[in-house]
Amino acid sequence: MLRRLVLAVPLIFGISLVAFIIANLVPADPTAANLGERAAADPETVAAFRTRWGLDEPIHVQYVTYLGNLLRGDLGTSIRTRRPVADDLGRYLPATVELATAGIVIALAAGVTFGLISAVWRNRPIDFIVRILSLIGVSAPVFWLALVALLVLYLRLRIVPGPGRLDAVLAPPPTVTGMYTIDSLLTGRWDLFRNALHHLILPALVLGAYSTGLIARITRSSMLEVISLEYMTTARSKGLTERQVTIRHGLRNALLPVVTIIGLSYGHLLAGAVLTETIFAWSGIGRYAYDAARSLDFPAIMGVSMLVAIVFVVTNLIVDMLYFVLDPRVRTGEAR
Amino acid sequence: MAFSNGSTLTASDVVFSFNRMKNLKDNPAFLADTIASVEAPDDLTVVLTLAQPDPAILAKLVYDAFSITDAEEVMAQGGTDAADAAETDTAEPWFNDNSAGTGPYMVGSYEPTVQTILVRNPNYNMGEPPYFDRIILRNLPEAAQQKLALEAGDIHIAMDVSADQLPSFEGNPDIVTFSTQSDTLIFLLMNQNPDIGGPMSDKLVQKAVRYALDYEGLRTLSGVGTNTPAAMVPLGFGGALDSSEGIARDLEVARQLLADAGYPDGFTVDLRYPDFTYIGTEFGVVAQKVQADLAEVGITVNLVPEELQTSLDAYRAGQHGFGLWLWNPDYYDTLDYVEFLPAGVVGNRANWTDDNADAEILALRDQVKVETDPDARNELFREIQLYEMESGPFAPLFQPGVHFAYRANLTGFNYNGQWRVDLTLLGLAG
Amino acid sequence: MVVGLVVCLLWFLISLAAPWIVPYGPLAQDVTNRLQPPSAEHVFGTDQLGRDVLARVMYGGRISLPAGVLAIVFAMVIGSAIGSVAGYLGGMWDEALMRATEVFMAFPTIILAMAIAAALGPSVLNATLAMIVVWWPSYARIVRSLVVSVKSNEYVEAAYAIGASKRYILTRTILPNCIAPAVVMATLDIGNAILIFAGLSFLGLGPEPSAPEWGRMVSDGIDYFDQWWLSTFPGLAIFTVVMAFNFIGDGLRDLADPRTRKSQR
Q1: Cβ contacts (< 8 Å) between C29 and chain B: which residues?
Q2: Does the structure's ipTM exceed the value 0.90?
Q3: Do B291 and C210 count as a contact with CB atoms less than 8 A apart?
Q4: pTM for the complete prediction?
Q5: What residues contact residue A196 under an 8 Å CB cut-off, 6+ apart?
Q6: CB contact under 8 A, A171 and B316
Q7: B220, C29: Cβ pair inside 8 Å?
Q8: What is d(CA A135, CA B127) in angstroms, rounded to the nearest whole number?
Q9: Which of C34, C49, C209 is the closest to B305 by Cβ?
Q10: Domains recognised in chain A with CATH numbers
Q11: What is the CATH number of domain C2-11+49-264?
């Protein structure tokens, strides 16, 4: 466990290096792309721009400067929005965290239920249906799913609200965490809470579809493996009902592999946000990343990729700890 | 007259705002080119001295860059109207989240590409108080989203309705549509600098492109309300040529011109454009149409869509070799279209300068700028347009129709080519 | 699995034979017949430039299938080579390599691919390159762990004993034993790669705008909700192809792993 914690440090360092290298692959000259009319014609302004962004320094010096700033929480200034990247991320991250968390909650609840149903009634019609559904979940492009869902559920059936985090006529709640559902609760605005929740459901469902499918598949196969094990038979022979056996002994052990992929799924959800936030007009870091990539806004690209990667590393660390707590075998086997 | 922070507007604020706009040397500064000096002899008088006759100066002054801001407030936020404002003014970040004007609404918050919120100006004292507490300008990037949100009653006006969507609003009693000809000119830019434009800098190639375009198809594509201007002056402006005087597609002529230019087998070129939709015109779709049209005369076009701001910056810096762009009038006078001539704002973006332009067009340009007699002006504009059809780095594509749809209970809807919708006049019935 | 194979083969055939199946070219515009709903003449309708959607969907496989397959094949080859060398040599090399792969794998696939594709500039080649960069580490890791476990087997030690060279042992005795698991994993990944590729081109980081590519077509259709056929059909194409590869991958995995074979039955 300790080893994993210690390893996270060089890992995050490595992440910053990779992000930096990618951002410096940019073949287009950012000077040209990011200066206005008056400026590009004026050599002095161009020189000032290059100095400001450190573009004249040798590449390794640029990296050291970047790292130094990074440690002070300075991710540079976005060329597109002309605001500090750290501020931008702070502004957009809560919306995405809200969405991804809702997505993972839905995926876990639905995935585990489906997987369990599928394993218990193995090879029955219900198993077949669930397996097809989970295969659809992992095979359908998330952006297409988003469109089709909007088309059917919003346009035709009108059972969910349209794109956006709130109805356009409503003003967001005062910012506490930046997550509308939580902020509206904290400030006692039930109307806003209901509206925000309503707007959250469809994007979260769509975003969680892949993870739901994945979790259902894993729950099913690990449940099947557990069911056939000896201690289940022992439990049965002790006179417990089939339901007690399944839930108390089977599920608890079958969920271990599921726990390990929560971290993975969370990263997947953050990434999926890039493909869906634009469709749902969700002003989170997914949409921010998309805009940044398209305008070759390298400080912003670096900021987002690093942030997501670090969130990913941290969630995985937390998941590992969770696993450590849940599974006695890992605890005792922690000799390496 | 009071600013939104309560302080009183005086002539010195006007002087400050005009000078700051001019000295920031940013994109709209060209509007102030003819202004020699601005002075305020007393609190209620502003004296504007021009460097040369400018028949369009009054039309220019209503452009939003000439907005009058509170000098004291702006200076407190790092603004300056000094000659070196371009380097020393640091008020931009503050202006991103605030405003310092006298209008009925002021900026509440601004999130680029997401939304701008205008809130009631509590100190507004020029007539009826503003109707709304807040006006939200929400960026719903897809026209389809705007339509859905409007139908659901989530928004009151959809600004980017496309011609394709108009029929679907018919018979809906809750929604009113409004269509008119826009003043927007969609055009192709071909850079005069051979290092940037490559083959596109060749006069004959430029003319060949004008003959190769399928204007009729482009009109069909853009839908109802679309017209094709003959040259770079849109229909509706004094002196504009009629559509019928424009170029008709002729592939033979185009191929011959290409052969004369030394490209009998055509060539390959990048077409750079902002990947966005403006008043129902999807630039990506228009670019693909241009690509297909030019393919017929042997020109292979690679499409290079760019993020709006990035693309705009490169275009303004004169770095687009072959670009697809739009122009909206800055002020309501045909003189605004002199910007498409050598050393004009758009002319410069195509690197069309006094050095590489011929004497004929330079003479026409200089004459029309100072001519004040209406008939003589129209005659000069006519000659300029005939020249543009023959020569020059631009090809007009079309002038789209503009369509709005709004909830039937919205009152005060109005259209103006420059502001599009004056939000301050809006209210709700019942 | 059989269904998957059939669907896959069908898609390969369709994209190869497209010119002989549909009378329209994927780029042929006809603006007077734009946005026509599906009909006998245009089975999937026409798009905003009057192009036949069916033709574009069929030709679409010519871009997405090779991109997905090649990205994974290259990632597998490069990853396996690096992984096997590291696993075989062990020590410092091994440690350094594993740390490097962890760094790459810390980025969610689409984020890393997006950053790389954006940096290199949008094109099919660059999107494919980006996917190779994203995927090689997982192959390096799996092959490395296989090599480490195979290395200690008796027959390898026997090969040492008879004096075989290191290179011989690695390429002739160790690697063949690692290929099967890598191939199974690759089949499962091809579906994913096609999804990521579609995602990249959905974001405008794939082929150029007029190219008939599925992800691109879905994104072009966003603006036309009333014309549902624009994005529905290309989306279905991605979906069926990915599902087919997942079927094949699942099947192969079951075949390769007797343990799951037993429990799946």
Answers
A1: 217, 288-289, 292
A2: no
A3: yes
A4: 0.82
A5: A165, A166, A180, A181, A184
A6: no
A7: no
A8: 64
A9: C209
A10: 2-71 (no CATH), 89-332 (1.10.3720.10)
A11: 1.10.3720.10
